[in-house]
Amino acid sequence: MAEEAILGFLHENHEIADSGKFATQSGISHDDIVNVVKSLSAFHFVEAQDIKRDSLVLTEEGRAYAAAGSPEVQLVNAIPPEGITLKELENKVGSDIFSIGRSYAMKNKWVEMDKSKVVTRKFDTVDDKVKEMLVQIQEGKVTNTEDAAFINLKKRKLVASQIWKGYSVKKGPKYARERRKQATDLTRDNLQRDEWKNLEFKEYNFKAKGFPVEGGHLHPLLKVRKQMQMIFLQMGFEEMPTNNYVESSFWNFDALFQPQQHPARDSHDTFFLKEPSTTKILPEDYVSRVKQVHESGGHGSRGYGYDWKREEANKNLLRTHTTAVSSRMLYSLAQKPFAGQRYYSIDRVFRNEAVDRTHLAEFHQIEGLICDRGLTLGDLQGVLQDFFSRLGMSKLRFKPAYNPYTEPSMEIFGYHEGFKKWVEIGNSGMFRPEMLLPMGLPEDVRVIAWGLSLERPTMILYGIDNIRDLFGHKVDLGLIKSNPICRIGIK
Ligand code: FB9
């Protein structure tokens, strides 16, 4: 409809001087006219010149008065010939119309009030010039927006200024009375029917984007995990098998020399299993050595001096750290002629802790360890410097800390160039002799280890503030589809 109107008008006339007036005259919305002008212009059927001018549009309050009349006229029309009390008048027209209309009716000297607060009108009818002007604006019939009356409407916030944009339109080099559908392919039918001679072919749009390819999309956590794996592999580490979320308290705590009274072993911090509630198989001779080191120490240690209970060690749980896997791997390393090893793990761990914006009851722990003869704390600081430099954080600081299974232990801080501040980026330490020697590792073997989470770096790298936007049932699939590649760890 708009296309026929425009092409038809230009067939009889030199130009459409003002698309706004043309829309009003042809009874077509200006938006439709503009869209068609843009399309015809793109194919050179017409040539369009921008027109801009100041115009007025009605506010929501202005639209209400254009329909129902100004508040002052509504108020006057609500006053009966015998007059009315203020309270009755307010109840009749409503508090908004009453409070606004009353002041303008008094200013226009349309009403008066006696000592008993009875309001009477001074005229039988009043002209609603405000409504008339609002309707003129609504119909696009106002040209001089600087007229004092219109400025007053702006002061009353019944109208607002805006830049009106339209076009003047003339025939273009490819003008035609009507736009023939352009052919996109030369078909067998076209050729057989000789139609091809009159066909107009649509130009190829080489800038057109292809349809988005629907397929699988990697979650940001998996992208960061891949990069972390690459970093570990580049550093000569081997991945530990972490395919058991369920673990015994023995491997998760006792093997790490974590005492059975430790608060972390309480059900407020750990998820214990009801079924199967206990583990069935443990290496008995090793269990005996662990019992002994907890109760009476050995290897220079005094132990904890409590009655260690097997049934406590048998309790099954959801592992609270992948260090449980590290203890299994180190034990199996001790069962054969010793050779140094570098292991890492990245997998889910579970903690029965209060959840908040950045913590859930589970997260992915990243852990690295190096097991070799004569390692020192300096070696640990050196490997941390190498590892975190590959993450883009080369300025590190170490703060003494405590872990039940490492001594010494260090919290790791890195200077984040983006945030311009120091950020806690992990924890680390040297596994205690009370953990390593009962396994059967040689006296001079040391294990340096560290841990961090997968979620924290991912949230920072992807600018995600709430962990529920990253992990869990409320994750926006758009994030999964549209997140950029992760480029840490690429040298
Ligand atoms: O990941 C953590 N922070 C972090 C890591 C990387 C990072 O990358 C930069 C942007 C590029 C940014 C931040 N943290 C450890 C520190 C904090 O986020 C902390 O609030 C949360 N911690 C978790 C534990 O919270 C219950 C992160 C998780 C954590 C902490 C300690 C270990 C593992 C994970 C450990 C260990 C360990 C120690 C000694 C021996 C073996 C393992």
What would you say this structure looks like, in words?
This protein has 491 residues and is of the alpha+beta class. Strand 4 and strand 5 (118-121) form a beta hairpin. A seven-stranded mixed β-sheet has the order 7-10-11-15-14-13-12, sandwiched between helices. It has a three-stranded antiparallel β-sheet with strand order 1-6-2, with helices on both faces. A three-stranded antiparallel β-sheet has the order 3-5-4. The chain folds into three domains: 1-70 and 130-202, Ribosomal Protein S8, Chain: A, domain 1 (2-Layer Sandwich); 76-127; 221-482, Bira Bifunctional Protein, Domain 2 (BirA Bifunctional Protein, domain 2), CATH 3.30.930.10. It is 35% helix and 22% strand. Bound molecules: ligand FB9.
Outline:
35% of the residues lie in helices and 22% in strands. The protein has 491 residues and is an alpha+beta fold. The mean pLDDT is 93.
| Radius of gyration over C-alpha positions, nearest whole angstrom | 40 Å
Helix content, binned percent: 25-40%
**pLDDT < 50 stretches:** none
Strand order of the largest sheet: 7-10-11-15-14-13-12
User: What is the molecular shape?
Assistant: elongated
The SS-based structural class is alpha+beta
CATH topology of the largest domain: BirA Bifunctional Protein, domain 2
Tell me what the CATH architecture of the largest domain is: 2-Layer Sandwich
CATH class categorisation of the largest domain:
Alpha Beta
Record field, number of beta strands: 15
Ligands bound to this protein structure: ligand FB9
User: What percent strand?
Assistant: 15-25%
Number of helices: 19
How far apart are the termini?
60 Å
CATH superfamily of the largest domain: Bira Bifunctional Protein, Domain 2
The structural domain count equals 3
Task: Please tell me the overall pLDDT.
Answer: 93
Q: Can you summarize the main beta sheet? A: 7 strands, mixed
